[in-house]
Write a structure and sequence with these properties.
- This protein has helices at about 5-25, 30-35, 45-130, 135-165, 180-230.
- The protein has about 240 residues and is mainly α.
- The chain has one domain (about 5-225).
- Helix 1 (about 5-25) runs antiparallel to helix 3 (about 45-130), helix 3 packs antiparallel against helix 4 and helix 4 runs antiparallel to helix 5 (about 180-230).
- It is rod-shaped.
- This is DUF5667 domain-containing protein.
- It comes from candidate division WWE3 bacterium RIFOXYD1_FULL_39_9.
- Keywords: Coiled coil, Signal.
Length: about 240
């Protein structure tokens, strides 16, 4: 049960209690007053009875008003406590959001730095192989696709951070569910970041790396052929 639901239920109980007090105040019986009814049509007895009833009503009214005031105080204390709890929870949430943003930025910076280094290493390898006359068409295509995937990852991450920062635009606990909706959208954006990260890793492992290995094996085989061709002949013509 949410704090909002708890507060509503508490308010209903307070209202019920207030109504009960009100109805009780207006429905007390003369018997409860302890006043002695006049047994004769004696003006003195009647006046005494009326005075007794008036005193009882005044005392009962004062007690009732004190109970109502106490009930109001309790209700205000509960409202204040609820506001303090919401404020504390929201402050904690906002601190966590800021902390998470910083953590994600640091993590993503490391990832992108590693991927940029990977791109540069692959580009240098392609340049060296091309200078030596090897066919690097596959690796060149791989590099283009890898760069595109890394760019997508970077865009997804920035979109996630923007979405996460937008949660601060809503007043936590007083924004008609907008804060919760914004947090959900941020989680969805984070899921896209993770998908894009996995896409980069998978492409490198399953496509780029095998192409590098295949070209390396080709170079080794060519080197063996070149070595055999350069070996001196043992036959004498």
């Amino acid at each position: 049960m949410t704090k909002k639901s708890t507060f509503i239920i508490a308010s209903l109980f307070s209202l019920i209690g207030f109504l009960a007090l009100t109805s009780t105040a207006s429905a007390f019986s003369a018997e409860e007053s302890g006043c002695t009814r006049p047994t004769e049509k004696n003006s003195e007895q009647i006046e005494n009875y009326k005075d007794c009833i008036r005193e009882y009503k005044e005392k009962y009214r004062e007690e009732h008003e004190e109970k109502v005031r106490e009930l109001k105080r309790e209700r205000e204390e509960k409202k204040l406590e609820l506001k303090e709890n919401i404020a504390e929870r929201c402050n904690l949430t906002e601190e966590k959001v800021d902390e998470k943003i910083e953590q994600f930025r640091e993590s993503q910076a490391k990832h992108l730095e590693r991927y940029e280094a990977l791109k540069e290493k692959l580009a240098n390898l392609i340049a060296r192989l091309e200078e030596n006359g090897y066919d690097v068409t596959e690796l060149q295509n791989d590099l283009i696709v890898l760069e595109e995937k890394i760019a997508v990852l970077s865009e997804k991450f920035e979109a996630f951070v923007v979405q996460l920062e937008e949660t601060a635009d809503y007043e936590c606990g007083n924004s008609d569910g907008n804060f919760v909706a914004a947090m959900k959208e941020a989680k969805d954006a984070l899921a896209e970041v993770r998908t894009a990260t996995l896409d980069v890793k998978t492409y490198y492992v399953e496509t780029v790396k095998p192409d590098i290995v295949a070209l390396r094996d080709q170079i080794r085989e060519t080197s063996k052929e070149d070595s055999r061709m350069l070996k001196p002949s043992n036959s004498i013509n």
